[in-house]
Structures are given as C-alpha cells and as structure tokens.
Write a structure and sequence with these properties.
The protein is globular, with a radius of gyration of 28 Å. By secondary structure, it is of the alpha+beta class. The chain has 15 helices and 34 strands. The N and C termini lie far apart (about 70 Å). About 25% of the residues lie in helices and about 30% in strands. It folds into 3 domains: about 240 residues, Immunoglobulin-like, CATH 2.60.40; about 180 residues, von Willebrand factor, type A domain (Rossmann fold), CATH 3.40.50.410; about 90 residues, no CATH class. It comes from Oryzias latipes.
Length: about 725
C-alpha cells in the first residue's frame, strides 16, 4: 500500500549545441515514512538517448555511480540493502530502450536524496526544418503480446495518477547555441519569453513558465536560420583512455543536409505500393488535445482520407488495421482507381477503436510476407499510439525487410514510445512524426507522403580524403535512404593527426549524381565533454544489440561480451549494463524493515496551365463566408475535409449539390455561372476555393490540387483544343 509519494520535484536543464542536446535531470526525493523505504521509480526517456552519468546526493555525501554488467550491478545492489547500506540502481529495460527503472534503496525516515541523471541526444529534424526535443512525462501501460510468457518488473502496468494529484513539480530551462542564428523556439507548453544572449542571436535561453504540472510531454521546437547546412564536430579523445580505443581517439560526427538539383527535387514518383497500418486498439479512443475534442482514431481516419485522395494514379495500395488481431481491406494490394478508393473510404468510415490490444508484430509479418509488385516500391505508413513491450522484436523485423520496404511511422498522443516510432522509421529507411497536443495529423502525414514520393536512392557512399597515416573507422550502420532537406549523420573514429581532412558524401539517383563535401578542419568543437563520443558509443551499442539478437550460442555470447565492454568503457548504458551507486561512507547502517514502493511517471492522461486562350477568374471572400443549407448534412465538420472527400481518384470534382454547399451556393447558381468554354467547371471552382479560402492549409491540400491540375490538362481537347490558364488573384469581380 502506497501512503506517501517520495518524489518531490524534478529539475531539468537542457543544453543544445547545434543539433545535439545534453539533458541534466535532478530528481529530488524525501522519505516521509517512519521506516526506511525502497522506492522503485519507472519512467520514460527518449529511446535514442545516451545515458552517460548517474549520481546521488544524500545529505553531505555525493556518490557517483559506476556502470557495470547488469547482473553484477543487481547483485551489488541487493548485497548493499542486505547490509543496511544506501544504494541506487539505474537500469534500462531489456524489452524497450525508452523505459528506465530507478531503485532508491534504504532511504532513512525523514531523509532527502537528490538523483542526478545525464544523457545526450541527437535532435530529430521535423519536416518544417525544426529540431525537436521531447521530455517524456507519460509512460503508458505497454501491451504484452499473448505469446509472451514472462514480464520483467519494469513492464508492469503503472499506477494511474490523475493530473490534478501529481505531487511533484517540474522546473525546466534550456540554453541553445549554434553557428547559425536562433530564429525562434516554440513549445506545446507555456514558455517565458525567449532571451537572446548575444547580438548575433546565436545563443538564446528559455524557461518553462511557472506552475507547470508534469502531466504531459514537454516538447520544444528549435528553429535556426539557414539550418540545412552540412557540419562536422570533431571531439578529442579522453586523456585517461588508451589511444586506439573508442574513448581514446578523436571521433567525428558528420551531418549532411542533402540539397539535390532541381531536376531531382521536382521529379516525384507516380508509382509505388502504399500500405497503411492503423492502430485500432482501445487506447486509440482517447481524445486528442485539440479544440475539436476528436479521438485519436477519428483524427487518424480523417488523415487516411486525405492520404488516399493524395495518392498518385497508377500506384497500388492496401489498408491494414490491428489490435489484438488484424484485418486488411484487400487480400493483396490493388491498383488505385475510383472503385478501389471508394471501397477503402467506406471501410475507413466504419473503423473504430474496437480491436483490443496492440499486436503490431503479426500484421507486420503478414505485410512483409506479401510478394513485392515489380516496379512498385513498397511504402509502409504506420499509425500507432505506440504501447508495446516487444519493441526490439518489431525493430528487428523492420530491419530485416528494409531493402524492399520503406517505413514511415507516426506516434499519436503523449506517451507514444519514441523507441518504437523512431526505431521503425530509422530501421525502415523512412521518417518518423509525432502528433501531440494541437498538432494536425493530416499536415504531418502529407509531409511524410511527400518524402515517400521522392525518387529512391540507388547508391550512397561516404569517402574520406585523409592525410597519410590517418584513417577513419565508420561506427554507424550504412545509410539506406535519404531525403531532400533531411539530416543524415555518420560517426567515425579517427586515428593519427587529423589535420586538414575532407569528407565527401555522395548520392546517386539514376543518372543524377550529388556530392557534398566539407573539411574537417573547418569544424567547431562541442563544449560539453565527450558528447560526440557518447553518441557514437550509443550508435555502436544499438548496432551490437541488434546483432546479438540475431545470433545464437557462443556467437551471441561473444557479441554480448563486446557490447558490455563498449558500454562500460564509454559509460553509456545498454540493455546489458546498469548504473550502481552504494553509499559506503561512515559505515552507516540503516536498520528497520524496508517499505517497498513502486512509483511510475504516469499522469492520466498552385499550379497553372500554360496556353494561348486565357480565362482569368478573379476571386476574393466569395466562398469563405458561406452558410450551409439547412437540409445539407456534410460528412465532416471541416469544409476542407468535406471538399477532399468529394474529389475522385483521377483528381476531378463533379458538379453536385454537396460541392455547391461548400461554396455557399445552390447547384443551379453554380451551373448558371458556368462559362460556356469551361467543361471542367466543378474542378475549377474547387481549386479556386482552395486557393482563396484555405491558403493557410495549403501544405495539406497541395497534392490533391496537383492531381486536379493534372486532370485539367487532360481535358484540353474538350475546350476546342485551346489551352486554359487559371490565375488566382486577390481582387475579385462577382461572377455569381
């Protein structure tokens, strides 16, 4: 029985250097019981964080933890408690790298303790160019597959604590620095005004507004001017480490932002197999934190509508949904047409969050068993709130099939597993998106679809022009896919005197060739010690973990041994190591029976047609301030989604009453205003409405507008073989 919650406050300091962040968290505990306690605190961390420091302060005593093989660390912890000593144990979940458990042992009555945890992380790039940092606050119960017999301690269902009853507070401050100016910092939480620390705006500081309850993830979006620039950070080795080792040699982190030629950027693929996998577990019925109070499943269904309407003609598609079992729309992917699209939309409309648990592995296995369609590269879109316990098994499966399938993942709502969502995109050569608070899922899904439609990469190579006697050992896995404007990072261990060296990043798209090069002597150094080394070590550790899971017997043990050595040497935690700290000062023995408390961080929770004969349609607020007819019953509250739902697969709109309702006119009024030489009047009107009334949402509807314009081009023969140009201007004449 839990009487009192010993965690009193959480202090977080964020230090961002360009696109690398160091996070220092301090957790303050107090035992208000009349007996010693052992507290187990289970909490989330980003799945790609390199945890590199753990220490504790008890009174005047400061204890720095050591990183050891996990079983050895557990035994030392148990021995310390048996001897009446204070001890602390920090370990990563073996099932999912985004869950950690902290054991605080033998905390005396009335005693306070401060736990300091430090990790470094490479910040993810959003589709709009922002760098995203997320401080997880919510750890939702992880679904356990039915055939998984054992459950580790940290996979237990957490206690659910209403947000109003969270007994601890959060203070959060961030300092940002970069060679490029910081343009702005945004957050889903209330922030104090951004403060610039120098005149060129390359350094800035921001704090979380007072009174914040740690009841949701803290998300920070950092925008730099001219962000998409290549860079390299060379970090010197540790003085105390042996030369020739990872920590003793310099390590380079090379970041590439491809900016491909216009010919490559403008050539989007008109083929492909698009497979949509939608989570229909019970948790998808939770509300989104938006003004419309839609549920996660409703927002996902609206997003599927927009994606289906935005698909190019000539592609193939299918829809899967899953819970504790899975369903699919077609036995195999079918060609995209008006008929198959209507079937899909009808199925999507009927979907609800009624399939139970979150068995994502089984539908993935079924998808990967399907034969690939020749000339149609498979693009997998996964929508989930990401609550599973077999994360590493799922990532292994995605990795095994990455040669034939790209994976784009979407984490919905607070608590979505960053390890699962980021991991699937990373191993599947795609892109990850997180939808939290007031984010529009439709916008982020279309951003990913644009990436999926980019030409596939045929060859990626990394070469080094190094002086004699200098070599580079690449520590990162081979880059499988890259996208225009998206960052790719490579870590390499350097031996010898680096001097003036050059790194080349080369990409081939069919006959197109791209080469991005920069000198390692023109780099800036990070001010936080061993940041790059820790990130490089984590990259190597994750690589070895995946290799170990694919081995058996002695080979597995050999890989595991190497993994533990890298982890201990670098001081970066892994699934097979843990931090252990024991207070041996003054030989103080704590007497009395221990009260064990399990504590979880889980609050409840435009295109134009060229031609000679031109029709100029000028337009201003005519359609923007319409009222719906009393007898009309639109399918969607959002008129944009209603318009999208009326578009046919080929890209055209038909002149029917539903379209007239959106325009605020009757069908007769629309027909009466139709020019005699325009046969595609309904499609023209739909495009005008989009350009005039929904400019702010252009990134969401631009792909469907491109389809509509492409269809209009095919209709030139119906306008007496004259070409038609539609120009959208601000001023208007009323043609109704």
């Amino acid at each position: 029985l839990i009487h009192l919650f010993p965690l009193k406050s959480v202090e977080v300091e964020l230090q961002v250097k360009d696109h690398v962040a160091t996070v220092i968290s301090t957790l303050n505990y107090q035992n208000k019981e009349d007996k010693p306690i052992e507290a187990l605190f289970v909490f989330p961390l980003p799945g790609d964080a390199a945890v590199c420091h753990f220490s504790a302060d008890i009174g005047q005593t400061h204890i720095v933890a050591e990183l050891k093989e996990k079983q050895q660390a557990r035994e030392e912890y148990d021995d310390a408690l048996s001897s009446g000593q204070q001890a602390f144990l920090l370990e990563e979940s073996e099932q999912s790298p985004d869950i950690f458990s902290l054991s605080v042992g033998s905390l005396p009555p009335g005693e306070s303790a401060s736990i300091r945890l430090q990790y470094v992380i490479e910040l993810a790039v959003e589709a709009d160019g922002a760098l995203r940092f997320c401080l997880p606050a919510v750890l939702n119960p992880r679904y356990q597959p039915q055939d998984q017999k054992t459950v580790s301690l940290d996979m237990k269902t957490p206690f659910i604590i209403p947000a109003s009853e969270i007994p601890y507070s959060l203070s959060f401050s961030a300092r940002v620095s970069s060679p490029r100016p910081v343009s702005k910092v945004e957050s889903s939480c209330s922030l104090e005004p951004l403060q610039y620390l120098n005149t060129d705006h390359t350094e800035a500081a921001v704090k979380l507004a007072a009174g914040h309850k740690f009841d949701r993830d803290v998300e920070l979006l950092i925008y730099y001017k001219d962000a998409h620039q290549p860079s390299a950070v060379v970090e010197a080795g540790q003085d105390s480490a042996q030369p020739g080792t990872l920590m003793g040699d310099p390590v380079v982190m090379a970041s590439f932002y491809p900016n491909f030629p216009e010919s490559v950027q403008s050539s989007s693929s008109s083929c492909g197999e698009f497979v949509f996998l939608l989570d229909r577990s019970g948790s998808m019925d939770f509300p989104m934190a938006d003004i419309h109070h839609r549920t996660r499943i409703d927002s996902a269904k609206e997003t599927l509508l927009l994606l289906l309407k935005s698909l190019p003609m000539g592609c193939y598609f299918n829809i899967y949904s899953f819970g504790d079992h899975f369903e699919h729309l077609f036995p195999k992917s079918l060609r995209y047409s008006q008929k198959t699209m209507k079937q899909a939309l009808k199925k999507v409309e009927e979907m609800s969050a009624d399939l139970g648990g979150t068995e994502i592995l089984e539908p993935l296995q079924h998808i990967y068993r399907q034969s690939c369609i020749h000339g149609q590269p498979t693009q997998l879109f996964v929508f989930t709130d990401g609550e599973v316990s077999n994360t590493k098994e799922i990532l292994d499966l995605v990795k095994e099939n990455c040669a034939a399938h790209r994976c784009f993942s979407f984490g919905i709502g607070p608590g979505a597993s960053s390890a699962l969502v980021n991991g699937m995109a990373k191993e599947g050569g795609g892109h990850a998106q997180f939808i939290t608070d007031n984010d529009r899922m439709q916008l982020k899904a279309i951003q990913s679809l644009r990436l999926a439609l980019q030409p596939s990469v045929e060859d990626i190579s990394l070469t080094w022009d190094l002086p004699a006697g200098v070599s580079a050992k690449v520590l990162s896995p081979t880059i499988q896919n890259i996208f225009q404007g998206q960052r790719s990072v490579v870590f390499a261990q350097l031996t010898g005197q680096v001097g003036a060296s050059v790194c080349h990043f080369q990409v081939t798209f069919g006959k197109a060739f791209y080469d991005q090069a920069f000198g390692l002597d023109q780099c800036f150094s990070t001010s936080v010690p061993l940041t790059v080394h820790h990130l490089a070590a984590l990259t190597l550790i994750r690589w070895l973990e995946m290799e170990e899971r694919g081995c058996e017997g002695e080979q597995s043990e050999g890989v595991k041994k190497k993994l533990v050595e890298v982890s201990v040497e670098s001081g970066v935690s892994s699934a097979f190591t843990a931090f252990i700290a024991v207070d041996k000062s003054n030989n103080r023995i704590i007497k009395g029976p221990l009260i064990t408390q399990e504590l979880h961080a889980t609050p409840l929770l435009s295109s134009c047609l060229n031609g000679t004969a031109r029709l100029y349609i000028t337009f201003v607020c005519l359609f923007s301030s319409f009222e719906l007819n009393a007898d009309s019953k639109p399918q969607f509250e959002d008129p944009l989604l209603q318009l999208v739902s009326l578009q046919e697969a080929c890209g055209r709109w038909l002149l029917d009453p539903a379209l007239a309702v959106i325009l605020g006119k009757s069908r007769d009024e629309v027909k009466k205003a139709k020019p005699s030489k325009v046969s595609a009047w309904a499609t023209v009107l739909a495009l005008i409405w989009l350009h005039s009334s929904k400019v702010e949402a252009k990134k969401e509807w631009e792909l469907i507008a491109v389809k509509a314009v492409s269809w209009l081009k095919t209709q030139r023969g119906t306008t007496q073989k004259k070409q038609l140009t539609i120009c959208f201007t601000v001023k208007s004449v009323h043609f109704f």
